[in-house]
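#lab-general

N.A. 3:47 PM
ok so I finally got the sequence cleaned up, no stray characters, all 352 residues accounted for. can someone with queue access submit it? mine expired

B.Y. 3:52 PM
send it over

N.A. 3:53 PM
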Amino acid sequence: MHHFDTQIMITRILEHLNTAILLFNRDLSLAYINSAGEVLLADSARHLIGLNASELFKFSDPALLINLQQCLSLAEPLVDRELVVERLGHSFTVNLSATPLLTGDQATEVLVEMQRVDNHLRISKEEQLLSQQNTARLLVRGLAHEIKNPLGGLRGAAQLLNLEVEGAELKEYTQIIIAESDRLQGLMDKLLGPNKPPEFKTINVHEVLERVRQLVEAELSGGLRMICDYDPSIPDIHADRDLLIQAVLNIVKNAVQAIDGNGAITLKTRIQRNQPIGRQHHKLTVKVDIIDNGPGIDPDIMERIFYPMITGRADGTGLGLSIAQSLINQHNGLIECHSEPGHTVFSIILPI
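B.Y. 4:20 PM
back already:
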């Protein structure tokens, strides 16, 4: 009974580790993989167990297979860093540790630990992004408040002057001051972002995306089409529906302008397991990808696209993405972007 309890305990520990654990037989066929391994290789144990390492890592760094073979033949542990694993069309970088399990002095199995290292790089990049966002938001809010006060005085004075002056020509000048003050006031309100705290309710993310799709399709012209690729199994999330609509709408409108009337925008949803957002680890997250096949984002501004007033268009204010990021941050989420000519992806990652 005690032996059985120990086995259950070991299995439970292995299944709850964040490190991928793989066990290969003497012929390098996979005998065991834990949950973290399934997540890393994006496949189920049912499909993976029995596969040979040469098949499993066919398109990966050749050093990976060589390490496993040497571990067996030399019966010595090996460690290798930053090996690229490619599987089912996606690639990632791992640090690998291979330990031979010995029977006598013969290695009969190889225990492999894999830790994804691009995740650590991603976490520090995300932390930097969140910190930059925070700093930029504080600076901009301070500046907007400073501008709003004299702006109110300017408008008030122009209104009083408008009542005093005679003649249409002079009134036209005061009305220009009033109209431009209002335009600046609107810009300041946008810079300050939404002033109401989020009202979190249980909502379905697809309801938000469908609303955005309706709003955008109502204004679409000729050669632009919207494609939906939804995962219907995604559970409900806790969010403010209106703020989420605003965030997604800002990104989609950006994509519409980038495509300039001809191309496709894809709204894609997927569920992710064991995903970090900054330093916070989440068991389940929803990833909403907004993909366009436009010209891509200029590499010169790529690092700064979530800053206010940064834009690649002559007529843009550069506030859309900054506000979207701010709204998603309020939901403890994050927006990431990857872009190359013909394929730009904005990914909204939200905890479930």
